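Appendix B. Raw example, untouched.
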Amino acid sequence: MNPSQPETISSLPLRVLNLVDCGVIVLDREGCIVVWNGWLVPRSGRGAARVQGHALIDVFPDLRGSRVEAAVLAALLEGTTTEHVPPSGKRSPFPLREPGSFDGALIDQAIAVTPFDEEGQRYCMIEIRDVSGAAVRERRLLEHAESLRARSYIDGLTGIANRRHFDVALDRELRRALRGDGTLALLLVDIDSFKAYNDHFGHQQGDSCLTLVAQELAGMLKRPADLAARYGGEEFAAVLPDTTLAQARVLADRVRVHIAGLGLEQAPAAHHPKVTLSIGVAAFDRERLKDPEALIEAADKALYAAKRGGRNRVVADGDVVDAAA
């Protein structure tokens, strides 16, 4: 066909097509453009006279082998019903941008291909709708949902994992240890004499103390799978995958020494002049400590023994603690 003499459709209401809020391309039986509506002009930088009479694939070479080309061929050859072309990872098959923004990002598109007959001839109409706004809203909704999900696992005060996150992580790691020949340790950490601290310095400074201890604890857990969490009140927990009881005891004592070394002033009524920690340690045992409740109970008993033994100390499950110490 001579590009200067494009085939026309006399009955097609071109004025109406130029008013619709989407791109409309009509192809003849040879796949050449016979209608190019006004919506496309500012978004493509091409006027109708420039593209009419030319094959769609020549105007948009990137469509070759695409789902759009396949839908067009099916429409022209088989006369199938309207086909909505799925994005298949490419949301912008046509190089269209916001009007006046030819260096900007391509707009996201929804494509529909419809065959029709006019005066005994087969034609194909391609509708292109800008769904960028919908895509942006979808992304924002997903981001919002992800943000809500993330916040549901974070303690609002200290910024570390909350009890819900702790429960999920401990259950997951215990299942993993049970499936293989794994190790897993748990620390329960309590700020000594925190009620006295709160009563003396006030709740605002008490919150600052909780946040500082939480962040210091989290900072000492170096491996990605380790988890520091606020267990409740002034009590924290650490889930330590691939860690034996002996290794966890060493880490717990490092945490204890580190917090004591910060030199945070304690209340006069406290047992120690500086803020200190008591820590209970327990580890997964396939026979005895193989579920979350049993492991937490063992760590809690060790923590209580550390408190009873004078505070500012680490006690591991199975240790013999002198109550008079």
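End of appendix B.
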